[in-house]
Amino acid sequence: MQNTREALGRLSERRFASGRRSGDHGMSILSSGWRAFTVAERHPETAQITSFHLVPADGGAPPVHKAGQHLTLRLSDPSRLIRNYTISTAPNGHHWRISVKREGAASTWLHDALRVGDTLEVAGPGGDFVLPSSAERPLVLVSAGVGVTPMVAMLEEAVAQGWSGPLHFIHCTRDAAHQAFAEHVADLLAKLPAGRSDIFYSRAPQAGLGANQHGGRVTLDFLRTQTPLGDADYFLCGPADFLRDMARGLHEAGVDRARIHYEFFGPPEEILEEAASPTTPIPVRPAVPRAPQPVTDETMSLEDQLGRALLGSAADAVVACDRDGIITLWNPGAERIFGFTPEEAVGQSLDIIIPEPFRARHWEGYHVTVATGESRYGAGDLLAVPGLRKDGGRISIEFTIVLLKDGAGQVSGMISSIRDVSRRFEETKALKKRVAELEKAAGAA
């Protein structure tokens, strides 16, 4: 299959004078690849959340970040897992702090195995979940559980910058024992001239609650009556269900999407499902698979013939791009799924198939992969995301990638195999809705 490999390797070296990008997604995420950081401190915030202070192993200062951004860590255990963790402190010129809840393999390893003096590989910072540059609008920070971590960093930054506008901190946790950074948050809010807080305890008894403390969970009704829906910027962080309810509810209440900001490290369609797939199937113009070009080299191997057949198939999309995200290969399957002909797609940015609300997150992950040369989605894991057709319709897609590397081992491009799973997505969503209705009916019986 050497000829096919060489052809794919050359794809990432091509440049097209007609190529345009529909947005500026330059290398704002990483200035370089991995950098060694040492654990300078670790201490518990609650029984389930531990903070780790990370300092550059070379003795220098960490890159300046913005409150709300996150780091990408590569674990030093045999799994070499790569995970994102929010920086839970404002810039201080000395260290980064991450505050990790014990859940999942990577976070459990950090809790159980990572000690002061140990070294981690870290990339970043990255992310656009950051405060506005000026206090033109009120801020409402709404979090649940360990979702408080970026909010703590934002409060620290607001105090450091002398934030004068209204700032409302709203947090939901199980009880006082599970409330991370409680005293620190109270101290920070006391330093803000227009700062206020409301804390919700989902499992605490009503008796004994203090001022601005509530039993139960934060609700949309509370946000409607206690926050300025028509004017505020809302920053949300917490579990997927919490984010889904808050983000959708705020939008349905009239809050413009541009004023709803959230941090979530899973597929974005888990939060905004309604934007991922249309309720009515979009008519798709059938694409006729292009027959492979006549093979004149009788010595072509079976592997090369199979590779040629796969690229010429209309079953699944095969899309290749260079390290800047400019499309260099577009097969018949891509034309069938997305509606663009090869002449229309090649030379364009991948933005043509990414819905606008999800582009920033896409390019963040893309540039991390280019810089580090690693991706979890090249080892069998599928990434489920919304896609954008030429006619403007939304679809649900799953894909995996293969990194293309040059002779020096640097990423020169990527090639993806993409499948349209819109029908399955709709069936799953309908099933979840039906299960929820049955559970609600059973609870009322």
UniProtKB/TrEMBL annotation:
Cofactor(s) recorded for this entry are: heme b; FAD
| Protein source organism | Azorhizobium caulinodans (strain ATCC 43989 / DSM 5975 / JCM 20966 / LMG 6465 / NBRC 14845 / NCIMB 13405 / ORS 571)
Catalytic reaction annotation: 2 nitric oxide + NADH + 2 O2 = 2 nitrate + NAD(+) + H(+); 2 nitric oxide + NADPH + 2 O2 = 2 nitrate + NADP(+) + H(+)
Domain (FAD-binding FR-type) ranges: 32-132
Sequence ranges assigned to domain PAS in this UniProt record:
303-356
For the biological process aspect of GO, one term held by this record is: regulation of DNA-templated transcription
Q: Print the keywords alphabetically.
A: FAD, Flavoprotein, Heme, Iron, Metal-binding, NAD, NADP, Oxidoreductase
Composition bias (Basic and acidic residues) maps to 7-24
The name of this protein is nitric oxide dioxygenase
Q: Does the keyword Transcription apply?
A: no
Q: Which PANTHER family match?
A: NADH OXIDOREDUCTASE HCR, PROTEIN RFBI
Family to which the UniProt record says this protein belongs? In the C-terminal section; belongs to the flavoprotein pyridine nucleotide cytochrome reductase family.
What GO terms are given for molecular function?
Answer: metal ion binding; nitric oxide dioxygenase NAD(P)H activity
- All copies of domain PAC, residue ranges: 381-433
Q: What is its EC number?
A: 1.14.12.17
Where in this protein does the record put region Disordered? 1-24
- SMART domains, per the entry: PAS (SM00091)
